[in-house]
Amino acid sequence: MDWERRGYRVLEFENSEYVNVNMSSLQGYVKTTYGQLVKAFGEPTETDASPYEKVNAQWTLEFTVPFTDEWGEEDFNYVKATIYNWKDGYIPTEEYNWHIGGFDNEAVECVEKVLDSTKELV
């Protein structure tokens, strides 16, 4: 989806189990519902209904974020993020403080921008 035409600098994202988020960590939270996450990012990358799992629903995402380099040329950063519940024993469907993992705060910014843009489409 072309998010830039809506005034955002996130061009697109991929929701895939093949996005490498090894060694990522908690960067922040977003308060929203499971339904809003599905609307924005599609179905979770992973789900596990076991009450003994630490994570029951997780989206594993890679965002393409354009920027202008020092020579004035457009280039792209790739920002990886996860959205997940933590030690609840179930998949929260009501409004919930979902955890956002990543390698820096850009993960939180990308998740928030996509969520904000889908709210504007309603």
What gyration radius follows from the Cα positions, in whole Å? Answer: 15 Å
Task: Describe the main β-sheet briefly.
Answer: 6 strands, antiparallel
Category from helices, strands and their pairing: alpha+beta
Tell me the domain tally: 1
Taking the alpha carbons of the first and last residues, their distance comes to 16 Å
Judging from the principal axes of the Cα atoms, what is the shape?
globular
The mean pLDDT is: 90
Estimate percent helicity: 10-25%
* Succession of helices and strands: EEHEEEEH
Total beta strand runs: 6
Segments where pLDDT lies below 50 for 5+ residues? Answer: 1-7
Please tell me about this protein's structure.
The protein is α+β, with helices and mostly antiparallel strands. The protein has one domain. The protein is 19% helix and 36% strand. It has two helices and six strands. Strands 1, 2, 3, 4, 5 and 6 form a six-stranded antiparallel β-sheet that branches. A hairpin with a 5-residue loop joins strand 4 and strand 5. Helix 1 crosses helix 2.
Features:
2 helices, 122 residues, 36% strand, 6-stranded antiparallel β-sheet, alpha+beta, single chain
